[in-house]
Amino acid sequence: xxxxxxxxxxxxxxxxxxxxxxxxxxxxxxxxxxxxxxxxxxxxxxxxxxxxxxxxxxxxxxxxxxxxxxxxxxxxxxxxxxxxxxxxxxxxxxxxxxxxxxxxxxxxxxxxxxxxxxxxxxxxxxxxxxxxxxxxxxxxxxxxxxxxxxxxxxxxxxxxxxxxxxxxxxxxxxxxxxxxxxxxxxxxxxxxxxxxxxxxxxxxxxxxxxxxxxxxxxxxxxxxxxxxxxxxxxxxxxxxxxxxxxxxxxxxxxxxxxxx
Length: 260
What we know:
- Helices cover about 45% and strands about 15% of the residues.
- It has a single domain, classed as 2-enoyl-CoA Hydratase, Chain A, domain 1 (Alpha-Beta Complex), CATH 3.90.226.
- It is built from ten helices and nine strands.
- It is globular.
- The strands form two sheets. The protein has a six-stranded mixed beta sheet, sandwiched between helices.
- Pfam families: ECH_1.
- This is Enoyl-CoA hydratase.
């Protein structure tokens, strides 16, 4: 089990619980996480969903080791199918759950970690939180769920992608990606207090407010952009597959080793 789930006071708390791997997302973790989102969405006693993580880091992103073919046997077709379901479809489904959601983020939130917090309606970050998408160093133009432009604005999105440097919690708050920045020790309390405040609002009003904002983004092109940029992302995999040994896995190993 990589996900903990509990409901109390109308709040469903979903906890990433793979701290020994910096909550890297293997197949099992993502399947359990999607099931937890679906459970919270269907539960009439749940008014707000709170996503949090155990350990030092929120998520080190995708864990591509295990559960698939050997590097020399990986095909673009296999990658496309796997990433469509577990990354693109999951993130879009979580975004559109008709209940308010909050992500509480601490430590590193790297690449695929953004696919967990960006679909949430609000983000509370600890002062030590760092958000990054360094996959340009792997020859890919950004992670599968391309919320960068919407979350950061075009120029800041390009800076973060072009340089691979992490965005601090303070910077993220300034550009509107993060709602609140709190001390690390206060992260759980602050996120739960915000969830409790929202849980007292009328459920139908909350649902309609969320739908209004999401639909406005979709009319502006959000959904179409997410879909089209996903295909651009796949060309990066195609290019990587042309190099012996699929070097993306090597880069991922190097990145995760620095978190231990």
